[in-house]
Structure formats: structure tokens, C-alpha cells
Amino acid sequence: MGSITKTGKKKTKSVIPGFGLSFGITMAILSLVVIIPLCSLIVFSSQLSFHEFIETVTRPRVLSSYRVSILTALAASAVNAVMGLILAWVLVRYDFPGKRIMDGLIELPFALPTAVAGISLTHLTVEDGWVGSFFGKFGIRVAYTKFGIIIALVFIGIPFVVRSVQPVLEKVEKEYEEAASMLGASRFRIFFEVIFPEIFPALIAGFTMAFARSIGEYGSVVFIAGNTPYETEITPLMIMSELQEFDYASATSIALVMLLIAFLILFVNAVIQSYTSKIVSGIE
Q: In DSSP terms, which residues pair with 3 in a beta bridge?
């Protein structure tokens, strides 16, 4: 029971014992792991004047790297949204031999070092590789092209979509589907009018996380990209190039732009999540 204060209002006890201490520890960890490293970007970038900062982050080669990183990440995330939804559906709705193995393999990109993934994908997609030789018959190059970058980003991004959609899909009540079926709705209509509104917020969350991860990916992309300036050069490589030349101010300035893009993506995701949740609540 809560105590009564002098103003006559009932004071409710905290649900979490020692909230002040636990909250302080949480903020300390958050500051050390997230806030302080991000603030260091601003500190190093402040070594440049505003004019120098704008000139650095808007160089033609840098702008081209933004375009390559964002467009390939967007394309890969769109593919992941579709394929991740299908994979989550199969894992949740069907039982088959090797299901547990497939479910475990979904998380392999999380555990596999990105450099190993990049080298493996490059060997597969070069002209004499298994995948590259197949596409070569149709005159399509994979390695050292934007197509190759998209394949690498699909590999590292698909677990985000599957793991976002899968638990939500498991909680969808099958009674609603049975009721819609009894009322004469087709499977297509049941999916898009009963199931899809329930999993759409999770699908958007998975898409956003895959997109945010993809625009900053370096290890799995740098080998397969070919790194041709104005063609397949990604922004993380530009940052590494500046660091190798000990131009920390330029490197952190470009990194700061990528950080702002990541914050924008997360903000858009939060807005969409809030909007779709309201729509779903209204439907229910």
C-alpha cells in the first residue's frame, strides 16, 4: 500500500526496487557506450569551420558515396522485407524436417564476421564463381557492381526482418482467419485484410533496422563492391580512406552526416510505428 503525503495525495511505491540506483547505472552505461562516442564525432568535426565542414561533406566523390550507400541499402532492404516476410511465414505456419536448423541459420549473419561474409560472397559472385558464372551466361556481372553490393546487404540484413515479424506472426489469432474464411473471404483477402495489418508495424521495424544497418555496413561490402569511385564506392570506405590519411576531422565530418541519416531513419520509423499502431487499434 502507498503512503499518504501532506497534500493528501496517495504516494505509490515504485514497482522496481532501487529505481534511483538502477536508473543511474543505466544512464552511466548508456553514456559510456552510446552518448560519449557519438559526442566525440561532434568534437572532432568542430575542428573544421562550418564552410570547411560543408565543403568536406559535399565533395562530388563523397556525395556519390552517399548515393551508392543509400540506394543499395534501400534496394536490399526492400528485398529483405519481402523475403523476410516469406521466411517468417514459413517458419511460423509450417512444420517440416530441418525447420529448427533453418531457424538457426537465419541468425548466421549476426555471428559470422562481416569480412568472412564479404570474402565468401566475392568468391561466389566473381566470373568463375558458382553464382557469377550462372549470371554470366546472361551477360550479368555481379561482383564489383551495385548488384553485388545489394546481394551482400541482403545477406546481412534479412535476420532483422525475420526476427521482427516472426514473434508477431506467432501471436496472430487464427480464430480471426477462420471467421473470415467462414464468411467467404479468399486466402488473398484474409492475408491482406486480417493478417497483414497486424504484422505491418513489425515489418516496417525490420525494414528500418535492416536499412539502418545496411547504410553503415563495411566489412561484407568492401570486398564485393570493387570500390570504383563514383560507381561502387560506399561511404564507410570514404571514412576509412580519410582515417588512413590521418584526416580525422574529415572522417568524423562524413561520419556525422551518416549519423544524422541514421537518426532520421529511426525518427521516420518511430513516426510510422506510431501511426500504424493507431490505425491497427482503430481497426480492432
A: 11
